[in-house]
Specification:
- The complex is a heterodimer of chains A (255) and B (263).
- Chain A is an all-alpha fold and 255 residues long.
- Chain A contains 11 helices and no strands.
- Chain A has helices spanning 2-25, 31-34, 37-49, 52-83, 86-101, 108-115, 119-143, 147-155, 160-197, 203-212, 216-244.
- The longest helix of chain A is centred in the last third of the chain and has 38 residues, at 160-197.
- Chain A is globular.
- The N and C termini of chain A lie close together (11 Å).
- Chain B is α/β, with parallel strands linked by helices and 263 residues long.
- In chain B, 35% of the residues lie in helices and 24% in strands.
- In chain B, the strands form 2 sheets. A 6-stranded mixed beta sheet of chain B has the order 6-7-8-3-9-10, with helices on both faces.
- In chain B, β1 and β2 form a beta hairpin.
- Chain B is globular.
- The chains are: A mainly alpha (255), B alpha/beta (263).
Chain lengths: 255, 263
């Protein structure tokens, strides 16, 4: 069954590239606009062996992972803090909604202005995108923690700290992991858009500068690398999730 | 000994009016006694239990444990409700140990204490399973030994077997009877099932609704140890059942006439 899934998946991807290649070879698609898989793979080979792609990959990876971790920590922290204080929840609720509602992509130019063209501005941008995701996810998880469960343990004589560590945190963990998983996409978006708007390195910058020179092949190469990056990070998070959430009843997840 | 002295509870309903859930209720439960609170829904039996547990504050009155004010102290009781409050991310073993873990009992001592209990309720071989892999009856058994493991003086049980099928329920009642016999706990047991209450209890406190009050207290003088289902067919059992049933009827349908409260 697993093998069958892998084979069909592989066949789909291979079929897509074959059709693309054939489309270009048959004159249906113009390689100048649409690229050509064979050329893209050659370009990928070249930027890999020359090491060119790694310096940009490293920059983007740094920006997005730092943004993910810092934004995630801030979101989780604020969610726990507000869960403990109904007063501050009331005070901050509309403010957070307004900040969340502003299309945060529009903030990118400001961050470039404030934090410069380097890594810092992209980290901050990714952080801001991830922050809300983690905050809302964790808050939803915290609201869902069964009061009956907490009460039963409280009657046993558990301290606040014990309740937090032994009940609340494990109960919210699946929500935080789900937030982290969708946060990966957000963090990459932040890093890439930041590099578009103003930067001098990274995969986003690579795409933007190649597109400016009409180097379609290079654009696709960079997208391909991004795809691999997302795949690797997601697999890593899936592994962590499976280890931490072993207790969950087995669902019929494919993969 | 647990005493509730003139305890009352009212709360603001959604429309702002004050609703009295519990009138002035006084209750005394001797150490080692098994007392059931029965009554129709809305009679405040769960509220009273939560106030005794310290999970809700009474609007007035106080709760004493051996003459001392309970006042927000925990750790002397165990609470089991109808809801599944096992920690789903912990194995059977880790769930059974949680109370001792909270007391910071060393792991070896925890294991030793819990092993016997797990065996007693037939969960041997399931130590490394998660609650999601257990049947409803097994979960409740685990819930019971999770309380017994840390040896609280009092068990506060709120319709613990309410969600189980009739068969499983009888098995658990028998388990509870023998566990109670061996561990000498004070038990306050909330139920709306009269048969269950008579089967298990030394004393039954019948409550009436709106606001919740104590209506009648019954002593259950059936011999112990009791075993199911024999005890339920004894004449003394059936007579007591009939008495309480008629007493309860007054509240459900006063005078048996179609009154508005009956609707």
């Amino acid at each position: 069954m697993r093998l069958k899934i892998h084979l069909i998946r592989l066949a789909l991807v291979a079929g897509f590239f074959a059709a693309w290649e054939a489309g270009v070879a048959g004159g249906l698609l113009n390689a100048f606009f649409f690229g050509r898989p064979s050329l893209i793979f050659m370009d990928l080979w070249w930027i890999t062996v020359s090491g060119y792609v790694f310096q940009h990959l490293w920059v983007t990876l740094q920006e997005s992972l730092l943004g993910l971790l810092l934004g995630g920590a801030a979101g989780v922290g604020l969610a726990f803090a507000l869960a403990a204080s109904p007063f501050w929840t009331k005070v901050l609720d509309p403010i957070l909604m307004v900040l969340y509602g502003i299309p945060r992509i529009a903030l990118a130019p400001l961050f470039i202005l404030w934090f410069g063209l380097g890594v810092a501005s992209k980290v901050v941008f990714a952080l801001v995108l991830v922050f809300f995701l983690m905050f809302f996810n964790t808050s939803a998880g915290l609201k869902g923690v069964s009061a009956e469960m907490v009460d039963a343990i409280r009657v046993m004589g558990a301290s606040r700290w014990q309740l937090l560590c032994k009940v609340t945190l494990p109960a919210v963990l699946p929500w935080m992991l789900a937030g982290l998983k969708s946060g990966v996409g957000m963090a990459l978006l932040g890093a890439i858009v930041g590099e578009y708007v103003g930067g001098n390195a990274g995969l986003g910058w690579m795409i933007n500068s190649a597109a400016g020179l009409f180097e379609t092949t290079r654009v696709f190469s960079a997208l391909f690398v991004l795809g691999i990056l997302v795949l690797v990070i997601n697999q890593a998070l899936n592994y962590v999730e499976r280890r931490l959430l072993r207790w969950r009843p087995v669902d019929h997840q494919i993969g | 000994m647990i005493q509730a002295l003139a305890v009352a509870k009212s709360y603001a309903a959604l429309d702002g009016t004050m609703v009295q859930a519990l009138g002035e209720v006084s209750l005394q439960v001797e150490s080692g006694q098994f007392v059931s609170l029965v009554g129709p829904s809305g009679c405040g039996k769960t509220t009273l239990l939560k106030i005794i547990a310290g999970l809700q504050k009474p609007s007035q009155g106080r709760v004493l444990r051996d003459q001392h004010l309970v006042n927000g102290s925990f750790g002397w009781a165990g609470y089991l409700s109808q809801a599944d409050t096992l920690l789903p991310w912990r194995t059977v073993l880790a769930n059974a140990e949680i109370g001792l873990e909270i007391r910071q009992t060393p792991p070896a001592a925890r294991r030793a204490r819990v092993a016997g209990l797990i065996q007693r309720v037939g969960l041997s071989g399931f130590e490394q399973k998660y609650p999601s892999e257990l049947s409803g009856g097994m979960k409740k058994r685990l819930g019971l030994i999770r309380l017994l493991s840390y040896d609280p003086e009092v068990l506060l049980l709120d319709e613990p077997f309410g969600a189980l099928d009739a068969q499983t329920r009888e098995f658990l009642q028998q388990d509870l009877l023998t566990l109670w016999q061996d561990f000498h706990k004070t038990v306050i047991f909330v139920t709306h099932d009269l048969v269950e209450a008579i089967t298990l209890s030394d004393c039954i406190v019948l409550m009436s609704p709106r606001p919740g009050r104590i209506k009648t207290e019954y002593r259950v003088d059936l011999p112990r140890p009791r075993s199911l289902p024999d005890i339920q067919f004894s004449p003394a059992f059936q007579e007591l059942h009939r008495q309480i049933r008629l007493d309860l009827q007054d509240d459900l349908c006063p005078g048996l006439a179609p009154a508005p409260s009956c609707a």
